[in-house]
Amino acid sequence: MTDLIQQDNRQRLKQHRRRYEVLAEQLEWQKIEIEAVTTDAEGFSVAVPSWGLGQGGTRFGRFPIAGEPRNLMEKLHDAALVQQLVGITPRVSLHIPWDRPENPRILKKVARELGLGFDAMNSNTFQDQPDQKHSYKFGSLCHTDKAVRHQAIEHNLECIEIGRAIGSKSLTIWLADGGCFPGQQHLRNALDRVIDSLKSVYAGLPRTWRLFTEHKPFEPGFYSTVVQDWGTSLMIAQALGPQASCLVDLGHHLPNCNIEMVVARLIAANRLGGFHFNDSKYGDDDLSSGSIKPYQLFLVMHELIDAVQDPNIRKRRPRFQPCYMMDQSHNLKDPIEDLVLSSIEIHRAHIKALLVDREALTYHQEGNDVTMAEQVLKRAYETDVSPILDEVRLRKGAALMPVEVYRKSRYREKVTGERGIKMDFGGGII
Ligand code: PSV
Ligand code: MN
User: Fold this and answer.
1) What is the DSSP letter of 23?
2) How many Å separate Cα 72 from the centre of its chain?
């Protein structure tokens, strides 16, 4: 792959250099030094979800493609390929038990050889497993039965154990716990039980680790969800302690929610822990990042960069750096292509947010000049930063045209011989 990338890059280099120079000149007029932006952009990375490497499905069905990864090792190989192509996805986020490794130490070694590390661990108490003693049908950490809660706590502790062995530093907990009908659950007591259970998980957290709670307003509970919004997620983090914070999945909001406001509030409360990037049009949460609301993605990034550059935030949290992860699992696109392009869209929003003239923005905000303030944001958003994105990939030895190179490599066709086709047409997320 490396040879193919270099060969393809060579053919495009001249044109890229020209485009980069034109943008450099354009930014110079705005008193922005392109090299400073590119250097900053080189520090960007986003984790790949292991479950996004397989063909996703909807709850109505799945359309398998040939050559899907059959196990964790094959998923790692695909993740390494994504990283080779884009250079900004050096970590994978694992989901247990889907990705339970036979030998975590060997897994860590293989990953290192492939140039990969591990991001947050994800626990799964939203499905029953064949060897499981108690069912999660009526909840896990919130369950009325102590034995079920205990089983869910133990599962989360096991995720931490595996994570420690492979070099992860955080645990993300998303709970499907909730109800489908009014009266099914005592709304306050269910939350009390979740907080109580989470205290036991938190007690098992290594000192250098972080625990993220991920809210979601509905699905699979269609009437109520125990951790339904950022307010509840914040209550939990505050009840647990300083190592707990909130994870924002961009698809987990009710329609028209102002997500950048949620982000700003969580930053203000010092509890923004991380992101699951994806996009959403209606009630879905698996569309490719930046495919539906790219301006929203930019505004979210603007809040993040604003916080990173704010000396007051830095005083409180010198290393303010929420974890960036993708969480999408597409049912139509080739997952590798989807992850490649999505990581680039998130990076694009990040770079555009770096271009915001924050001094001018503050000036116009203080003077209540609505038009000019908005224009500052729009100017950054409307700048075509593709040459910077390309330059970062070039400097990292990745591809100027990643999807084209991937298709040229015929990777999917090549692995199909070995992997075959997973004849799973069932509904579900994976
Ligand atoms: C739930 O919809 C979610 O966003 C959580 O992050 C899960 O871990 C993931 O999706 C599973 O697909
Ligand atoms: Mn998620």
Assistant:
1) H
2) 19
3-state helix, strand, coil in the chain (%, to 5): 50, 10, 40
Q: What is the pLDDT of residues 22-68, one digit of tens each?
A: 999 999 999 999 999 999 999 999 999 999 999 888 888 889 899 99
> What is the rounded CA–CA span in Å between residue 414 and residue 37?
38
Question: How far is residue 356's CA from residue 370's CA, in Å, rounded to a whole number?
Answer: 16
Strand-pair category, 61-62 with 170-174: unpaired
Query: Which ligand 1 atom is nearest residue 122's CA?
Result: 8
> Which residues does the chain have with pLDDT short of 70?
427-430
Name the H helices within 310-398: 311-316, 335-354, 358-366, 370-382, 386-395
CB 260 within 8 A of CB 296: yes
- Residue pair 64/70 in contact (Cβ under 8 Å)? The answer is no
Q: How far apart are CA 377 and CA 379, in angstroms?
A: 5
Binding site membership of 285 for ligand 1 (Cβ less than 6 Å): yes
Q: Which ligand is nearest to the CA of 54?
A: 1
Determine which helix (DSSP H) or strand (DSSP E) holds 153, and give its type and residue range. helix 146-166
Model confidence, pTM: 0.97
177 CA to middle of ligand 2, Å? Answer: 14
Whose Cα sits closest to atom 12 in ligand 1? 429
Question: Does the beta carbon of 122 sit less than 6 angstroms from any atom of ligand 1?
Answer: yes
Q: Which phi-psi region, left, alpha or beta, contains residue 189 (left: φ > 0; alpha: ψ -120 to 50)? A: alpha
